[in-house]
Task: structure prediction
Amino acid sequence: MKNTTIDQVRARRVWDSRGRPTVEAEVLLRDGTKGRAIAPAGASTGSGEALDLRDGGTRFGGLDVSRACAAVNEQISPALTGFDISDQESLDARLVALDGTADRSRIGGNALVATSMALAHAAAAAAGRPLWLHLAGDRQVRLPLPEIQIFGGGAHAARRVDVQDFMVMCPAASSFTEALEWTAEIYLAAGALLKKAGTLQGVADEGGYWPAFSTNEQALDTLMQAIVDAGFHPGTEVGISLDIAASEFGSHGRYELALDGRSLDSDAMIEMLGGWLANYPILSIEDPLAEDDPEGFKRFCAAHGSSCQIIGDDFLVTNADRVRAAAKVQAVNAVLIKPNQAGTLSETHAALVAGKAAGFGTIVSARSGETEDLTIAHLAVGWNAGQLKVGSFSRSERMAKWNEVLRIEESLGKQASFWGWDALPFRSAQRSIG
Ligand code: PGA
Ligand code: ZN
Result:
């Protein structure tokens, strides 16, 4: 008989893809089973996110995590020891109660999310199943539509362009494997275009090409050209997806576009983005307005929600209550799902369930600071999220996640099914009407 009681939780400091310290948690069960996970870190964070606990001071730019690791070893471990691993929700509730703050600042969002994910890995290992299957149980799941960055900007590229992510989606691909093949061709074609223009300048934080463009529209034109050069039909086979991350350059109803030298109010911002939607095959747009502009979100969604996925990231911060509130007033039609914005996996899952209940698109997402940790690849499949966003098509902290989904797709054999177009909320709405 296996003893799946928690024996110990311990933490160590490891390093993320930006060379910054982060927390790795390891859960040990009495029978020797282990589960391990690493906290990611954002750069363009929403103000409502769980807060990471960092040491401050001058060491490693104030970003060291010795206090967060100590919180795992000295507070989380004694609080969880002796409980069975099987009930993730009650273990997560213990973590939330132990922290006791709304913003998770006492124990730290980094300590909490690393522990919560490590608990899930230990439970899956105890059950002898891969994490995605442990989460899926008997439910049929489909492989997620990937959203893959080609150019990286905003806070991930010293604000070289205002828009943070210029991405592609391949909803007409027949499988996850094929979607990656198409993306590889487009990434290659985009690199060749930049090389020819003499503007190839390495890659940004999430592996997309560093954006040496003189306007935001030039980035869109180059992306269109890359799709065509790679041999695909823009719009019908491959679409564009943008993360505007507007909270980074907008607040109090003003948006300062540094690259274009434009200062816009909320309506002018909506008009500019509407122009992009009219001129380019944009299937998805994330945080088109700032987190403090809910009225702008509503107006944007009323104008474009029937033909475009409109995702709340900083606006909803993976919070189920915010998702329900946004659904009520139709401010978005999709929600980004980031475990470390919430703090625990149970809260993350609740936000996803709230999104699904509202008919939203749900996109499991990495952060700009990542590691070899594969948890989100398993969440996207096991929770049947429909979509997965982990950055670009280079840098191994990104590729590790794409490659893990390839393995899962292969393991499903003939049972494998790809979300494709069905993942996009405006397409499902059309289907249910038609
Ligand atoms: P972040 O960026 O991890 O720096 O917040 C990702 C995103 O905005 O989606
Ligand atoms: Zn975002």
About this structure: The chain has two domains: 6-128, 145-433. The CA atoms of residues 320 and 353 lie 8 Å apart. The chain has a mean pLDDT of 96.
